[in-house]
Amino acid sequence: MSTATSLFTPFPPFSPLPKTTSKFSTTFRLRLPSPITTLRHRKHSPFAAFSTLPCGGNNSGGGGGNNDNGKGKGGSGGGDENAGDENRKEAMIVLAEAGRSMETLPKDLAAAIQAGKVPGSVIDRFLGLEKSDLMRWLMQFDGFKERLLADDLFFAKVFIECGVGIFTKTAAEYERRRENFFKELEIVFADVVMAIIADFMLVYLPAPTVSLRPSLAASAGVISKFFHSCPDNAFQVALHGTSYSLLQRLGAVMRNGAKLFAVGTTSSLVGTAATNALINAKKAVDKSSVDEIENVPILSTSVAYGVYMAISSNLRYQVLAGVIEQRMLEPLLHQHKFLLSTICFAIRTGNTYLGSLLWVDYARLVGIQKPQEEENPVLVS
What is the average pLDDT across 178-201? Predict the structure, then answer.
């Protein structure tokens, strides 16, 4: 019995065991939250890395509301701040390696760095372009600077487009005028100049840009703010930390279309008015040509050409600059500039030829030109 009693007596002292277990459990639980929080934070960070994708398309079609910088509002504010910090650090590292300070940069570029809007690659491109006297002079103009920072071959593409335009337009003028080419040289010059202006605008307006523009004032209208936040090219690659909604990309098409309509209508007005002036002068001198030569309808031709520029030329050049060149060719050939320029030359020449064919079909469709007048059509863009 004593043995049995001695065996059963220890059990009452073990009654506090639940408290001991509770203390151990409480201590264990108090230590767990910190590691769990850390692990969860580290597990989320790889997903944030997807914002560094060059197209910025992972959230570009997201929230419709964007601020003036093109950054999405709402729940993505933390991601924008992180991307801005990364851009700022990259830019400062590039400046430090180059031995440059913020004070030596243009004010708008320095402000963009401070706001975290541009990554280090843009600053590196700016420093490279500055080594050329011509590029340094061109970057004094905001429009050229924004386009050169997005594409260091932008000036070469302007030269290609305008060079092709001069050749094709002059050849077409000679084909139409033949023996009267040198007699009508003033009109030929006017036509070629108008064509070159149109060609330049077709390269300039749809070209991708690095936006350094400050935000509009709070008093600006809703429409002004919307178009201010749109990219210059509907298909352009968004910088790290910036995204464009589908509505903003459609806005880029509409905004450039309106500008190209004005450019096309104006250039056609000048060209057709000069052509009609020459035709009327010929009729006054040579009475036999009164029935042979007809005046070109100024208003209908000019409006039709403006519509053609706003729709056909606008869409083709947006796709050419934003998809074919920036998204397809440049990632593959960015280290082979000569080959890239050669392919761009071939593609832009083909696009000009395609434009001439589409213009002939369109002009016949709307009735501003008759089929027999189109045996030797003028090449347009």
Answer: 80
Work out the burial of residue 36: count CB atoms within 10 Å of its CB; fewer than 13 is exposed, 13-18 middle, 19 or more buried. Answer: exposed
Predicted pLDDT of residue 379: 54
pLDDT in tens, 256-294: 999 999 999 998 898 888 878 877 887 777 766 556 567
Burial class (CB in 10 A: 0-12, 13-18, 19+), 99: exposed
Query: pLDDT > 90: what percent of the chain?
Result: 45
The Cβ of residue 62 has, within 10 Å, a number of other Cβ atoms equal to 16
Identify the CA nearest to 236 among candidates 154, 327, 148, 156: 327
Phi, psi of 208 (to 5 degrees): -60, 150
Instruction: Decide which of 314 and 80 is more confident.
Output: 314
Return the DSSP state at 64.
S
Q: Check: CB of residue 192 under 8 Å from CB of residue 377.
A: no
The Cα–Cα gap between 151 and 337 comes to 11
| Distance between CA atoms of residues 326 and 238, nearest Å | 11
End-to-end CA distance of the chain: 114
Q: Alpha-carbon distance 86 to 119, whole Å? A: 8
Question: CA neighbours within 13 Å on the CB side: how many for 364?
Answer: 12
**Whole-angstrom Cα distance, residue 303 to residue 262?**
9
Rounded Cα gap, residues 24 and 280, in angstroms: 105
- The residue with tokens 């401070």 is 114
3-state secondary structure of 72: strand
Nearest to 86 by CA among 112, 110, 117: 117
Phi and psi torsions of 8, nearest 5° = -90, -20
List helix spans (H) across 232-381. Answer: 246-285, 298-308, 314-319, 330-333, 337-366
Nearest CA to 202 among 313, 347, 355? 313
Q: Which residue has the higher pLDDT, 280 or 315?
A: 315
Q: What contacts 24+ positions apart, CB below 8 Å, involve 102-106? A: 106/139, 106/145
What phi, psi does 60 have (nearest 5°)?
A: -70, -25
CA distance 87 to 151: 19
Q: Which residues contact 49 (CB under 8 A, 6 or more apart)?
A: none
DSSP bridge partners of 249: none
Region 44-59: mean pLDDT is 34
